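re: ur question from yesterday

yeah so i grabbed the chain u mentioned. its 156 aa long if i counted rite. heres the sequnce exactly as i have it in my notes:
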Amino acid sequence: MNINATLLAQAIMFGLFVWFTMRFVWPPITSALLVRQKQIADGLAAADRGKHELELAAKKATQELRTAKEKASEIIALADKRASEIIEEAKANAKNEGDRIVAGAKAEIDQEVNRAKEGLRQQVATLAIAGAEKILRREIDAKAHADMLSVIANEL
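ran it thru and got these structure tokens back, copy pasting raw so excuse formatting
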């Protein structure tokens, strides 16, 4: 065999191989590469969007947390204020109740004093009448009257 013919035949076969590869093998490989490239690009874009959304979510969560803390602080402040108001109301009610009890006790004491005075008046009246009876039953004598009055005064 001639070497030139062999080289020519190999060159023709190589050309047919290149044409066959370019015509039937290369387009599916290229389309598969393009599809894969598009998938990778979409995945990277989705990752970027996800990262951006994660940052936004983190900022929003931080803001929500800050808002919640502010609301909690306001609620605690209102609760403290209300507690103070309730304590003040309770103190005022207790003072009013104490004043009412003291006034009732004073009124009761005044009534007891008035009853005691009335009882003493009745006893004094009874003693005065008894003394007057004793004086009238005895003879009318100035010394006896003075003695009797001193005895009555001692009884009072």
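noticed a couple things. Helices lie at 3-137, 142-155. also The two ends are 173 Å apart (CA to CA).
anyway ttyl
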